[in-house]
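Fold it.
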Amino acid sequence: MGKLLNNFKRTFSQEKIAHPGIYQYLSPGEDPRNYRLHLRVEADGNGILIINASTILHLNQTATEYAYYLIQNETPEKVSKEISRRYKVDPSTAERDYLDLADSIQEMINTPD
């Protein structure tokens, strides 16, 4: 019974990857796009991602975690391992979701307003 209860607590716990606050990413100097990402993580785990101070995305907790990993420049392998552990999803699904979000953000960076 203890193992079942521990699995339940871990699955539904309020464990946070990113603590509430603001995180930012500045593109490397050699990148001609010269873009910025700002992620605001709320106390409930949801977040807001601001791309180049002009595009705002409201994110649920999972998308906020993906965006946090993106800003931290984490590898897709590490992200998929952590997300699959936390949410009990297949690692390949977690990696695909992470890469899809990264691609969508890159598309917004590359597309003029």
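The chain has a mean pLDDT of 89.
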